[in-house]
Design brief:
Elements (H helix, E strand, L loop, with lengths): L1 H21 L5 H39 L5 H19 L5 E7 L5 H11 L17 E7 L2 H13 L3 E6 L12 H32 L5 H16 L9 H19 L3 H22 L11 H10 L1 H25 L11
Antiparallel strand pairs: 1-2, 1-3
Helix pairs in contact: 1-11, 2-3, 7-10, 8-9, 10-11
């Protein structure tokens, strides 16, 4: 019990308090620990956590496949995809370049072979200065070492000296044209784009359910959403601010009709509002973007920059307070979920 509970709680509390109060202590060693050592420790722990998460993913998906639960076919695809990415990331370079160090007197057969194999469009001008000290690198990698060796053998039969240059481990996953980068660009990226495309329909469905004027707050959300959506598209800049003012007068009249039973008051407000907007428009010359507060692009920009930013900052303040409270719970040993206690 002492090793499994007391020591972990003590370690977490000590280093949590040390890191927290270290920001208020003017000491270079402490600052170096907070800015460098603690960050590196976090990266190391996070790296092991990624592996644990991957193993947990394989465990859960494998159990789903073995028990033939609903949707087990998708779990099988997830397992195979994980193994595929793991193998080509850790065990296959997937990026072998060929460097030509000398060329024959007649380079045309070599150029034709290179162009046919790599789908490049090279000509003799690319090989003018080629020598042992200045080799020409074909910037289209081969996926396997054997395919690169076969290509070098074909070049050798034409009297061309060349060599295979493998991409260093680690850099191979970012090499343009390499196997891992090809997988990322041609499989993962389109799938991610598809997921985001589907997400747009879910957002639209959720917006339809949320943007029902059931109460005052939902009505504000509905109006703000309509203004932002119309104001951010080109057609929004073509809608005159005076048209919006007429709609505002009519909208207020609709709201008054639910609050005031005297129709004369409602009719008077609508008539007065329409006459006021008309007279003001005749005096100002009906400019499309004046008054600015009723011009949709300017109005949506104000909504986006003022109420939206205020709400976002309030959320961030709440998140910050939650982080502080959670951190204090860890420091004082009140939160024990990391050792398995609920």
């Amino acid at each position: 019990m002492f090793l499994r509970r007391t020591i972990p709680i003590f370690i977490v509390g000590f280093f949590g308090a040390f890191t927290l109060f270290g920001w208020f202590i003017e000491n270079e060693s402490i600052k170096a620990f907070i800015n460098d050592d603690a960050t590196q420790w976090y990266d190391i722990i996070a790296s092991f956590a990624i592996f644990l998460g991957a193993l947990n993913l394989l465990k859960l998906q494998s159990l789903k496949v073995l028990k033939r639960q609903s949707g087990w076919q998708y779990s099988l695809i997830a397992i195979l995809s994980f193994l595929y990415v793991f193998v080509i990331g850790f065990f296959m370079r997937g990026a072998f370049f060929v460097e030509i160090s000398s060329i024959p007197s007649n380079p045309d057969p070599m150029i034709n072979l290179v162009n046919e194999t790599t789908a490049l469009e090279l000509n003799s001008s690319y090989f003018v200065d080629v020598n042992n000290e200045n080799p020409f690198r074909i910037e289209v990698p081969f996926y396997t070492d054997s395919s690169a060796d076969d290509f070098v053998a074909q070049l050798a039969s034409l009297g061309v000296n060349s060599a295979v240059v493998p991409t260093p481990w680690g850099a191979h996953i970012q090499t343009s044209g390499g196997l891992f980068k090809w997988m990322f660009d041609n499989i993962f990226t389109p799938l991610s784009a598809t997921m985001f495309a589907l997400l747009a329909f879910f957002v639209a469905s959720a917006s339809y359910r949320a943007f029902k004027a059931r109460n005052f707050e939902a009505t504000l959300l509905l109006l703000a959403g309509i203004i932002i959506m119309i104001g951010r598209v080109p057609v929004g800049s073509l809608i005159s601010s005076w048209f919006v003012m007429y709609l505002t007068v009519l909208g207020v009249g609709v709201v008054l009709s639910g609050l005031v039973r005297d129709r004369r008051i409602i009719f008077g407000w609508v008539l007065f509002g329409l006459l006021f907007v008309t007279i003001l428009g005749m005096q100002m010359g009906w400019p499309i973007d004046k008054p600015t507060m009723f011009f949709l692009p300017a109005l949506q920009e104000w909504i986006y920059m003022v109420p939206n930013v205020a709400g976002a900052r309030a959320i961030m303040i709440g998140i910050g307070l939650g982080i502080i409270i959670t951190s204090l719970r860890y420091i004082f040993g009140l939160e024990k979920s990391y050792i398995g206690d609920q």
